[in-house]
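Sorry, can you check?
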Amino acid sequence: MKLTWLSHGSWLIEINHHRVLLDPFLTDNPAAEIAADEIENISHILVSHGHLDHVADVASIARRCDATVVANFEIANWFAKHHKVERTQPMNLGGSVALPFGRVQLTPALHSSGLPDGSYGGTAGGFLIETPEVRAYFACDTALFSDMRLITRGEIDVAVLPIGDLFTMGPVESIEAIQMIEPKQVIPAHYNTWPPIEQDAEHWAERVRESTEAEPVVLAVGESITIAGS
């Protein structure tokens, strides 16, 4: 599994020949270094919740790539009805689905989920992606909550956690999350896009090393890491 941070909460996830996007927000994103129309050959788009900074480029990429949008029931139907997205996979919290690249579970998150036009966006979530080799947990936008320990029970090869604070948990809470999840590696996200969520990721990494057994991996925008798994 190869992970490329596209900035903010946006990720390109490559599993064998499958290219999957998570929460694509590139247009009007001051931290992005690639445009939405430069993204090619996407098979699936995972959407964690309805906020503009997570759904802004979903429809255009889905239509152009004929990709399947995987999201909660309300968001999947909203894209089908209002944005002419032909392929959707509605889900709900706790449910999982076998997709061509692996098993995907929509996990709980503590966050709001209104859609850009004011429509109800259901409940925010995260994603647990499992392949025969790798288990990856994307917490997405969330506060710290104790059930993270249950959601991720079993070995987690990599966890991607928000550290921006203000709209999600911050660096302090993320350390507690890491202690519960016990991943082999942990990657920060959802920070430094705008001044209100600026964080010192290297200082965060030092705290991770001091307080947990996880290996912190701080990626620059556009940088990738390959997760080998067990």
In short: The domain at 2-220 is CATH 3.60.15.10 (Metallo-beta-lactamase; Chain A). The helical segments are 52-55, 58-65, 73-82, 148-151, 171-181, 201-211. The chain has a mean pLDDT of 97. The chain has one domain: 2-220.
